[in-house]
DNA sequence: TATTGTTATACTCTATAACTATA
DNA sequence: TATAGTTATAGAGTATAACAATA
């Protein structure tokens, strides 16, 4: 409209955003129905479940989840209250807090995952061929790496001395 | 973990969600900085700007934006208060409300768009080849069509008589 | 002085249910 | 009876700034 550019590119962008919005909405409902968690809480637990020793510092946990620190503190507090994680000061760095997923947390993730995979398969994988998926995986992997390499726009942007 | 499945597929899904999350966060900030709007408000205005006669009913406006009706009413109210849209009863159907974008609304979109395109180009298009983009566009277009064809999980799920 | 994390607060978005009015 | 939309209200997520403690 103003900066014209290739319209196809914009279409691609819009299709991407709308698709993921729909998918996000669907999995959000699945996670809540199957495990009484928000999608973000599920993501945090899933990250912890895959982490070495099943624990991460708050900062490490925040990375990639696009979060303000206070938001993560809030979510960690909710998860702790629900008995799904524990928090303790790191022995390596007294400033850091280590978040550890509990067995109840692991169970919760395990309870959600099968249905979760079903939703993703029905909505995302279903209309795609095996080859499409491979290509999409490669493309999004590159995009993610590229975005991660960009100056983080959330967590790290704490004090931007103007 | 539970329903095993192809791990590559899950990776693709995670890469997709994380990338879009980062992109969403970036454009959200751009839209707010350049035009004092939330991303969703921007999307609504952009939809109206592209619509025939620059107007849509509430229901048509909601489609694809994954919204509850009350949420859309709320957003439309904010946009109207800001002078960016007007609302009037449709002459065709007395029940329907026609939302029309104003000149100020068009100006606002025009003010946001160039910078918006810049962000999308830097974050999404930059690491991709022309061919990647074509492929991605085709894939996401198919995915979107597929998801739209699914029973809508937001707007239409109004009264699900159990 | 920089970094990790928490607290308090306020704001936005979203969702549910009850309601009005028109088809 | 079904559909379009609004209202009220409550809840969840997010962000900012001020703060304490450790490196």
TrEMBL record, chains A, B:
SUPFAM superfamilies: Winged helix' DNA-binding domain. InterPro entries: HTH_MarR-typ, MarR/SlyA-like, WH-like_DNA-bd_sf, WH_DNA-bd_sf. PROSITE patterns: HTH_MARR_2. Gene3D superfamilies: Winged helix-like DNA-binding domain superfamily/Winged helix DNA-binding domain. Residues 1-145 form the HTH marR-type domain. PANTHER family: MARR FAMILY REGULATORY PROTEIN, TRANSCRIPTIONAL REGULATOR, MARR FAMILY. This is MarR family winged helix-turn-helix transcriptional regulator. It comes from Amycolatopsis silviterrae.
